[in-house]
Design a protein that fits this description.
6 strands; about 150 residues
């Protein structure tokens, strides 16, 4: 094997380790956030009564870092997910609140956030971004601020 083959293989291995490590760090941060806010960390399983069918997020191919709680009596589920498959897929953080859409104002948070009423759940998320740098997963401090604001 040439030196360039070793460089390419090492580069891919380093990228794999970097993505794996970032996922582990984020999972730990989400678990700590759940403990701080009194939520339960569910890992990779959505609660049974949260059905994404009929929403733009129905094509979610995987979910992870699921937290579930009822601060102030309001049921809230937040999770990271991959929507779609292949080149057209994207990742995002979704906040689901069991309430009516009229009780939540998206402009209160961020005008880029999308609000979707699906049966008795309101889904709050950033839609797919077509920019050079996609928005991706919500940073933990931002997620915490939204969850605390919703729980009030």
């Amino acid at each position: 094997m040439s030196i360039w083959a070793y460089v390419v293989v090492s580069g891919f291995a380093a990228l794999f380790v970097w993505f794996w490590w970032n996922g582990r760090v984020r999972a730990g941060a989400v678990q700590a956030l759940a403990a701080t806010l009194g939520f339960h960390y569910l890992g990779e399983a959505l609660p049974r009564n949260l059905d994404l069918a009929g929403s733009p997020l129905a094509s979610a191919s995987s979910v992870w870092n699921v937290i579930d709680g009822e601060p102030s009596g309001k049921r809230i589920v937040a999770f990271d997910c991959a929507i779609g498959q292949g080149k057209g897929s994207w990742q995002g953080t979704i906040i689901a609140v069991k309430t009516e859409a009229s009780t939540i104002s998206v402009s209160f948070f961020d005008p880029a956030l999308h609000l979707e009423q699906v049966r008795d759940w309101v889904l709050i998320y950033r839609p797919k971004d077509y920019g050079l740098i996609p928005s991706g997963l919500m940073p933990i401090p931002e997620l915490q601020a939204y969850l605390e604001a919703i729980a009030i």
